[in-house]
Design brief:
The protein is an alpha+beta fold. The protein has 14 helices and 23 strands. Strands 1, 2, 8, 9, 10, 11, 17 and 18 form an 8-stranded mixed sheet that branches. α1 runs parallel beside α4, α1 packs parallel to α7 and α7 packs antiparallel against α8. The termini are far apart. The structure holds flavin-adenine dinucleotide.
């Protein structure tokens, strides 16, 4: 039996845990990541992430590496059961306001591989595989005892941590340990998920194809140079076993693969998933937090499940680093659930809505879709809404100071704009607070921001940041290390009084690398 002490234990080395650990490491926080498996989970799952999540990956130092394994998506096509196009929403593949393409396709195991390799570059983090966490006990002395079993030797160990991040997925032990339960948001559908590798040319449009058919709802998309994903809703009594044989599977995908010989289609896997919508009723008990699938589950219709976990990690890591270094008061940790829970819930609701609109309603639903879908582009602004990667603003909290009755930038994300010197906003700010101002600051204001560990960004007329402030009638905004606006207003002196002192060690941080997308 061994016992060591560490600042943070992260339970689970999926995308959420790896992101949280890397962000903490960038602030020099000591961290142990425990996972029951020795290497990544090899089955493909997530295939889409948006530009906000890409931006987080770039902050981790993975901009170029993600560019090399991802594929910008060209939009969404709604098709009927005969694959006739009902509506098409094309998006450009240029960089959006976060500095990256707005929709990106990839293979989750490949992403996890680069996340793991990147984490290994940080000296303050240890990733321990074959470590099955068996218990979390909150001890009186402000510590949590994390018990785990080495799956190879069978030995039992424990680590004492100041904080524990439960990033242990849908069947989370951390969730059970804090007495949280999953609230059922009333959605359950069984789907067949098929991944195929082929070097043959499917010659299909390179966006997501959504088959709007209640009898056999389906989704098709290209997710990489040689990788294609299909998802088919299973009928009552059907299981994945009915489609494991090539001969049984082929008729399902043949409308897309057409004349390509079956031998040229390598089945990566055929699996069955039950898509659910669930939200934990509490995300924290004292020193234990829930993040990612441990806290929320969504049907994947808008490709936001993993993204939500990465948003959780991004929201919490800098707050925790601030508390651990004594730079921020412990109560800032309360803002994690206040901000993240309604946001995750809103995206789950949207995913349910999209899934229902595309797949439910029987033959009548099909008739309505056939009549309505071709006219959707006539509704002003709808195309932008369907394609937009914007997600809701964060709720008011001690770290999102928004007036109740007036629209404000607070809670929204600051664009990752190109600055006067050619760098992007995130490169300059590098995990600190920023004060963005269109008014020239005085020497005293500059000193004050610097003394609080922040960085001042002057938005000159004609620049993207200047336009961004002006659209909301603001002259200045305080931007948190996660890119969210804390407060915005017209008076820089008044505003900078709300700038927290955030003096944490960024010595261990690597600057974000710009991706090579043109
Ligand atoms: C078919 C499908 C398609 C999807 N498509 C998308 C998409 O396009 N976009 C998107 O954003 N999301 C998508 N998702 C969702 C996405 O895959 C998940 O949300 C994501 O994997 C959650 O990451 P996580 O790190 O929170 O949890 P997980 O990936 O589940 O990782 C949890 C980790 O914790 C470890 N663990 C668990 N218990 C213990 C324990 N007791 N001790 C030690 N270790 C433990 C596990 O081994 C695992 O490594 C999809 C999911 C599916 C199934």
């Amino acid at each position: 039996m061994s016992a060591e002490a560490v600042q943070v234990v992260v339970v689970g080395a999926g995308p959420t845990g790896l992101t949280a650990a890397t962000l903490l490491a960038q602030y020099g926080v000591e961290c142990v990541v425990l996972d029951r498996w020795d290497s990544i989970y090899p089955q493909p799952r997530a295939v889409h992430l948006d530009d906000e999540i890409y931006r987080v990956l770039a902050r981790l130092g993975l901009g170029d590496e993600f560019a090399a394994i991802s594929w910008p998506c060209h939009g969404l096509r709604l098709v009927d059961r005969d694959l006739r196009v009902l509506a098409e929403f094309r998006r450009g593949t240029d960089r959006g306001r976060h500095g990256y393409p707005e929709a990106n396709m990839f293979d989750q195991p490949e992403l996890e591989r680069i996340l793991r390799a990147n984490l290994a570059r940080h000296a303050t983090v240890t990733l321990r595989g074959n470590a099955e966490v068996t218990g979390l006990t909150q001890e009186g002395a402000g510590r949590v005892r994390v018990s785990f079993t080495d799956r190879v030797t069978g030995e039992h160990h424990s680590i004492r941590a100041e904080y524990v991040l439960g990033c242990d997925g849908a069947n989370s032990l951390a969730r059970a340990s804090i007495g949280a339960t999953l609230r059922d948001l009333k959605f359950e559908q069984r789907w067949l998920v098929v991944d195929i590798d082929t070097h043959a040319d499917l010659a299909e449009w390179e966006g997501v194809h959504q088959v709007c058919d209640p009898v056999r709802a389906a989704t098709y998309m290209r997710v990489g140079r040689a990788r294609y994903r299909w998802e088919f809703r299973l009928g009552p009594g059907e299981t994945a076993n009915d489609y494991r044989e090539r001969a049984c599977l082929h008729p399902l995908i043949e409308p897309w693969t057409k004349g390509i010989p079956v031998e040229e289609l390598e089945i990566v896997r055929v699996a069955q998933y039950t898509f659910r919508a669930q939200l934990a009723d509490r995300w924290r008990d004292r020193r234990v937090f829930l993040l990612g699938d441990a806290a929320h589950l969504t049907p994947p219709f808008i490709g936001q499940g993993m993204g939500a976990g990465i948003r959780d990690a991004t929201n919490l890591a800098w707050k925790l680093a601030g508390v651990l270094t004594g730079s921020l008061p412990e109560r800032v940790l309360d803002t994690y659930e206040i901000e993240r829970r309604p946001h995750a819930h809103a995206l789950i609701r949207l995913a349910k809505l999209v899934g229902t609109a595309m797949t439910e309603g029987g033959e009548l639903g099909n008739l309505i879709r056939a009549a309505v879908a071709p006219r959707l582009h006539l509704l002003p602004g709808l195309k932008d809404q369907i394609l937009s990667s914007r997600t809701p603003v964060l709720c008011r909290s001690d770290l999102v100071m928004r007036p109740r009755l007036r629209r404000s930038l607070a809670g929204s994300l600051c664009p990752n704009a190109v600055l006067d010197d050619g760098r992007r906003f995130d490169e300059l700010v590098a995990g600190r607070f920023a004060v963005v101002t269109s008014a020239e600051p005085s020497a005293a204001q500059r000193t004050e921001v610097e003394q609080r560990g922040g960085v001042l960004v002057v938005a000159h007329p004609g620049t993207e940041l200047h336009r961004w402030l002006r659209r909301r009638r603001a002259h200045a905004a305080i931007v948190r290390p996660d890119g969210t606006v804390l407060r915005a207003g017209r008076d820089l002196s008044h505003l900078s009084a709300a700038l927290p002192s955030f003096r944490v060690n960024r010595g261990n941080a690597r600057p974000p690398m710009p991706a090579r997308h043109s």
